[in-house]
Amino acid sequence: MQISFTLNGRSTTVDVEPATLVVELLREQLNLTGTHIGCDTSQCGACVVHLNGLPVKSCTLLAPALDGANLLTIEGLQGAPGSNRLHPMQEAFREHHGLQCGFCTPGMLMTAVALAAENPNLTEADVRHGLEGNICRCTGYQNIVVSVLAGAAAMNAAKGE
Amino acid sequence: MKPFAYHQPDQLPDAAKLLSSIEDSKLVAGGMTLIPTLKQRLASPVALVDLSRLENLRGITDDGATITIGAMTPHAVVAASKLLQTKIPGLAALASMIGDPAVRSRGTIGGSVANNDPAADYPAGVLGLGATIVTSMREIAADKFFLGLFETALEPGEIITAIRFPVPLRAGYAKLKAPASRYALVGVFVAKFTDGVRVAVTGAGAGVFRVAPMEAALSGNFGPSAIAAIKIDTDGLTSDIHAEADYRAHLVTVMAKRAVDAALS
Ligand SMILES: Cc1cc2nc3c(=O)[nH]c(=O)nc-3n(C[C@H](O)[C@H](O)[C@H](O)COP(=O)(O)OP(=O)(O)OC[C@H]3O[C@@H](n4cnc5c(N)ncnc54)[C@H](O)[C@@H]3O)c2cc1C
Ligand code: FES
Ligand code: FES
Question: Whose C-alpha lies nearest to ligand 1, atom 3?
């Protein structure tokens, strides 16, 4: 079947089998390999993308659900348009050592950006609750939580500018 | 996954017709349970009928004495609903405890109730509040809907369109999460109405069930102390790698007390 959607700001039309997972479409057909597959069983969150602004696990999403939708992947995350900078959440992860091997990071970032966008007053408890579906084998989460709080504050500050 | 045809009807009668006319077809709502099942090849339908374009199945409406939640309303929308946070905060809290944010973006109340997982949260809220399941064919009382392990009163071809909840005086939910899946090891929903109290338990056995002695005790005195000494029988409770039946029985009392506390706060 043919589906049309907006992918990181660009309109995209592809032919897919209905039984295609969005993460397969991204990685294998569209060559966007920033979205990772950690478990393929909906547990780890390495595959999180934004569908119409909401965080979703792309390993548990069928391609037909994209038709007419707006999809943002880690490749589409960026700082202020034209600034050629990282997104404030990415900057915060770099600054606060929020990653080690980096495998979980694309999903962590996408979940974190969604959390911060939804709640301008994030607390540490909110961040820990919000990251329940994102598993990291390396960091012990401490620096991830610090990074998300810092990134959320930076996103708020950027909004205020 | 085995290949399948994909239908996205925008009218309920069309969805019902597709479902009943294509043998081995299946409904897909949020897909949070169905897609993992397809991947494991535990099911291999020839066609999926996607409910996401049925706008009438989405949203939360205030009918005064009742609140109706469309079957396709995602958990995140229920959790964030100001109406529910005001009128049935226990139900909004229950939705906020399901899975994780990505699961709550996609998973729907209709899918969860139709699936009737023995550890799912919504069945406790639906039975605890004595809600009515509205389908493409009829209305079914919660007490007659949940029939045990993954089994419901739904007939083949029947589609849940909404769940209608009576507004209680107070209600609360408490669960101990299984740490890996976040499903309920044991979850208890307690609701107080003018004519009595309902207590519904999920996670403990093969399906959601009510606890009559706790309902009677709480109808007399709605406080955690009223049920502190009531221990349920381990007969029919689940023993598995996560917990033995007697621990689950113990948790029912602990979670019921916490649910009452939540209802009072
Ligand atoms: C990682 C993870 C964690 C989770 N944690 C929890 C948790 O903590 N607590 C919890 O309760 N649940 C949990 N879930 C399950 C989640 O809540 C699902 O969203 C829910 O069980 C199914 O809803 P769905 O909309 O995704 O349904 P789908 O997966 O689309 O469908 C499920 C079944 O219901 C049928 N169906 C769907 N809609 C209807 C309808 N309107 N009428 C009739 N039949 C219908 C489908 O045909 C299918 O058989 C979790 C899931 C995942 C992946
Ligand atoms: S790959 Fe999707 S949740 Fe792990
Ligand atoms: S940084 Fe290695 S998995 Fe998270």
Answer: B99
* Residue ranges per structural domain of chain A: 2-76, 88-160
Nearest-CA residue for atom 32 of ligand 1: B111
At the topology level of CATH, where does A88-160 sit? DNA polymerase; domain 1 (1.10.150)
Lookup result for tokens 């993308």 = A49
pLDDT at A160 over 80: no
Instruction: Fill in the amino acid letter for A73.
Output: T
Does A1 sit within 8 Å of B39, measured CB to CB? no
Q: Is-contact B189 B127, C-beta < 8 A?
A: yes
Fold (CATH) for B170-264: Enolase-like; domain 1 (3.30.390)
- Which ipTM did the prediction report? 0.95
Residue ranges lining ligand 2, Cβ < 6 Å: A 37-40, 42-47, 57, 59
**Ligand 2 pocket: which of A27, A35, A43 to mutate (most atoms within 8 A of CB):** A43
Minimal-distance CA residue of chain B relative to A112: B101
**Per-residue DSSP letters for chain A?**
-EEEEEETTEEEEEE--TT-BHHHIIIIIS--TTS--S-SSSSS-TTEEEETTEEEEGGG-BGGGGTT-EEE-GGG--SSTTS----HHHHHHHHTT--SS-SSHHHHHHHHHHHHHH-TT--HHHHHHHTTT---SSS-SHHHHHHHHHHHHHHHHHHH-
Beta carbons of B233 and B207 less than 8 angstroms apart: no
CATH 3.65.10.10 matches B1-50: no
Q: pLDDT digits over A75-92, tens only?
A: 999 998 888 899 999 999
Contact flag B31-A1 (C-beta cutoff 8 Å): no
The model's pTM is 0.97
Q: Could you report the per-residue pLDDT of A36-54, keeping only the tens digit for each?
A: 999 999 999 999 999 999 9
Q: Nearest residue of B to residue A131 by CA position?
A: B100
Cβ of A57 within 8 Å of Cβ of B103? The answer is yes
